[in-house]
Design brief:
The strands form two sheets. Strands 2, 4, 5, 6, 9, 10, 11 and 12 form an eight-stranded mixed sheet that branches. Strands 1-3-8-7 form a four-stranded antiparallel sheet, with no helix packed on it. The chain contains no helices and twelve strands. The relative contact order is 0.30. The protein is globular and about 40 Å long. Helices cover 0% and strands 52% of the residues.
Length: 128
Amino acid sequence: QVQLQESGPGLVKPSQTLSLTCTVSGASITTNYYYWSWIRQPPGKGLEWMGAIGYDGSSDYSSSFKSRTSITRDTSKNQFTLQLSSVTPGDTALYYCARGTPGGTSQVILGEYAMDYWGRGTLVTVSA
């Protein structure tokens, strides 16, 4: 069974860089043709797709986050990482990692990826 687990600090100061890691088990992040996404949900708002890294190492970012976001991977650890720079209190949210398929079918489609497996999410608060 595919499992994803987010990890990282729960509190980040304004102007700093938020860094989260997603550890995947039960599947390889290099398996064709999956893409591994970061998604967030601010309090009282809907899901926001931030970006993804593909099975081939390619990256795809939402235009809303592209200037501040970097997604990288460590294939030896089967992990992928989100870095969001210059954070503000508006970046406070529940952050999820998820697996998706471009053009696929699912109850949840974000950034044109049909998501099938999700982590439980981790709350990140941006505050001084």
